[in-house]
Design brief:
The structure is a homotrimer.
Chain A (H helix, E strand, L loop, with lengths): L12 H16 L10 E6 L5 H12 L3 E5 L8 E2 L12 E2 H11 L2 E5 L7 H4 L3 H9 L4 E3 L6 H15 L7 E6 L9 H12 L3 E5 L9 H14 L2 E5 L2 H5 L4 E5 L10 H9 L8 H5 L5 E3 L12 H4 L6 H23 L5
Parallel strand pairs in A: 1-2, 1-5, 3-4, 5-6, 7-8, 7-10, 8-9, 10-11
Helix pairs in contact in A: 1-6, 1-13, 2-13, 3-5, 6-7, 6-13, 7-8
Chain lengths: ~350, ~350, ~350
């Protein structure tokens, strides 16, 4: 059976640590031939700067070649529902796309954000799962409703700053202001990886409407059960920031308002004070700040925070390159069956 | 004089066979340095998934590099009429585009579908011919009003299933339902290559409005004269399918309605029963099914057909990679004058 | 301090000559490993055919890899104003984009045309300068309000035709007709490089509204002071062409009408006779003709001129490849500090 890279929860803790170790090694020695002659298809249903650049360059630095496709734009639109009578816009079915790309490529990466119309639908992650189902080669999640590559980059960055053992560190995931309702993927992912690594995790969001999907709250609790640490929720900004070693910020849309965003707008408009600023950071334990990027300055975080020495968002973005190379290597390795 | 790859009819039968032999060899041994240091420009005036991926990867697997351009989108719009006073949208003339790319690249690939407004115009294949005229390097047809790369992939697939000698095989090219009037290119090409290879060829289409351009009917007849086999037309579905060894499906717009599609719509709406389904396939001689892809499932062919063991569409798509590598190699070889 | 390639005026004459010498050498020997393992990000805010192809291929021919990004299209929209409250369309700030790409890449190329709404704003070249400010790696101007890569290609072409010493050559930069008001970048650049190389330079434009920005007129005068040669302006076509050794054509919008183009339109409509045609070329000293491309035939120059043996526009386009390879090599070399 093919092992994909869809979510970090699919990895054992040992596998997770091994990926991070290998990423650290690749950061020291970026050029190699580990993926000599290999190819990866990168399918983007949404824009990308870091993901696309870092995968394309990472593949190339190890001797592989990335093909970048934008279905519905430069490539044909794709249908994902099984048994669909395809009389709409889509010109081909994921069954064929995934199978054909499996003939051309050794790996397939997929970025597919939610449609933001119906969370009950989006939370099924159908695009990613359909590729995983029909592909004959490993599939990599380039951000759908989670962002596991970002998780690894985030984890590597924290390991670089605090050492490998992150247990006991106070970790704040804070909702932050943004004019538009965004994907919860990075928030789901942050919660997942922070609890996985045994930290003392607080989720700060304005009110219960901004809670993440129960699936990810459950994962957080489950991870705490296994890794130690803790997980709590607060709606009090000062309570959230006080004593934090790490502040990770993300904005997202309130799940109850998916597909009816006009109802969320008045509430959202009152929440600009959730911006990460220097006053809030002063409440922390000389905490680090990070964000997955892209980030709107002076909306999600102030210039003062972004330009502070404690901001490691650019380091985390760099680490995307290193962790993804480790992921590609590992998936090829598993596929080759060298690890039986 | 430069030899291009515009249509398979420009190749001798021996050359055609040699390309297929080389493609089969490259399929066994995909990596090489035959195109070391070479570059190919791939110009897409229309979307592509397979063509773009397979050319880009194929070039790379042989040591070359492909540059992908979308004139009118990421690159400047191009004028194709000689002596045009260029006060419209186009910013440059194919004369310059082709000459400049000839300085940068060893090969130029061009995808340019018909405009679907006037078949008398489209049938002249002016974009492709203009590139061939102005280019100083070999030009490859990536699908215009024919699709010779698909022909080679199709032929290689049939050879893999039936052996090199395809004479005597009953070959059905069937029109199939689709909500939109599509390009006749693959149908023209299927007729061309199937008759070229000496098969017993039937063209099944709903009525005489759906006949292909006389040029391709004439090529079919000419090929029959040279290769043996036969060519006939039917509008009777059962008659078409009965005893077929190969069913190749394609939908296309009726030529008399080019540019006035609203007139075709009522007729087309009555033709949904041309879908390739398991009942029809049951009439064949345990026939293979194939299609060039993209394919709308449950419109052009049912899930049952697409998922059947006799469906070789994905194999054919894979073979695009191998045949195109053979084409690139051959064109470079001819250009180098090694074959005097 | 990082040395960028923003404008040729930032180079000493010796550096400029060395780049052209190296470009000539690379033209003879195009393949190498000088940029082995290096990467360049190419950011296009505007379309490109030559720039994108030649940089991507040039990098590849020397062992490097180019990543092509289109911010606002396949990548996120970017904010350039310092301290902006980013509640508009842009999803991230150039500070992060430039820093992150500096982690992934060894070089960053930027194409960013003026907005054509306010020349007082556009002339500040803020996009390019912002990248240069925030990048930790050398930045290359791929055309903003100047086009230094084109300058080098132009210079190399003239050296190939006339020899290295261009002093005394009569050089005409002529405005030419075009239905739309275009960027002045290539005109600014032509004036800059032609005076830099000590030629006898004439700027021919229809009337004082079409004069270039004072900054570039001043650079021209300053260059004359240093390199010898001369610089004059004329509005008389015959006066401009007579005896010219080189005719370089470009169309551009009249600066006083930036953002109010409807006012320029009636004046522009009377200027079609500025087209470069064979009659005008007959006034020259068997002069060469060139243009940066893209060029609208029979609008900016006639077919007769474009197809004449004296037209070296395609040679100049080819030389983009060679000079840009020299630029990339030099920037990496400077960055490596090998030249202390």
């Amino acid at each position: 059976m093919i092992r994909h890279f869809l979510n970090t929860q699919d990895l054992s803790r040992a596998e997770l640590d091994a990926l991070l170790d290998e990423a650290a090694r690749l950061k020291q020695s970026p050029l190699g031939r580990d993926l000599e002659g290999r190819t990866i298809a990168l399918l983007f249903f949404n824009p990308s700067m870091r993901t696309r650049s870092s995968f394309e360059i990472g593949a190339w630095q190890l001797g592989a070649h990335a093909v970048v496709l934008a279905p519905g734009k430069d490539a044909w639109g794709i249908e994902f529902e099984p048994n669909a009578v395809m009389d709409g816009d889509a010109e081909e079915h994921v069954a064929e796309v995934a199978q054909v790309l499996s003939r051309y490529c050794d790996l397939i990466g997929v970025r597919a954000f939610p449609k933001f119309r119906d969370w009950a639908y989006d939370r099924e992650d159908k695009v990613l799962k359909a590729f995983a189902q029909h592909s004959r080669v490993p599939v990599i999640n380039l951000e759908t409703i989670t962002h596991p590559c970002q998780e690894l980059a985030h984890a590597l960055t924290l390991r670089e700053k605090f050492g490998k053992d992150l247990r006991g560190k106070k970790y704040l995931l804070t909702w932050t202001w943004h004019p538009k309702p965004l994907n919860t993927a990075v928030a789901n992912s942050a919660l997942t990886i922070a609890t996985r690594l045994g930290m003392e995790v607080t989720l700060l969001c304005p009110n219960p409407d901004y809670l993440l999907d129960e699936r990810y709250l459950d994962i957080a609790k489950q991870n705490v059960g296994e890794a130690g640490g803790s997980f709590r929720i607060t709606h009090d900004i000062e309570d959230g920031y006080r004593g934090a070693d790490v502040v990770y910020a993300k904005s997202w849309g309130a799940l109850p308002y998916f597909g009816a965003w006009e109802g969320e707008a008045p509430m959202r408009a009152m929440l600009k004070h959730f911006i990460v600023d220097e006053d809030k950071m002063a409440l922390t334990n000389n905490g680090l700040f990070s964000h997955c990027l892209p980030l709107r300055r002076n909306i999600k975080a102030t210039d003062g925070v972004m330009d502070a020495p404690y901001c490691v968002a650019v380091d985390e973005a760099e680490n995307r390159l290193h962790v993804q190379k480790a992921v590609m290597k590992q998936l090829i390795h598993w596929k080759s069956g060298a690890q039986a």
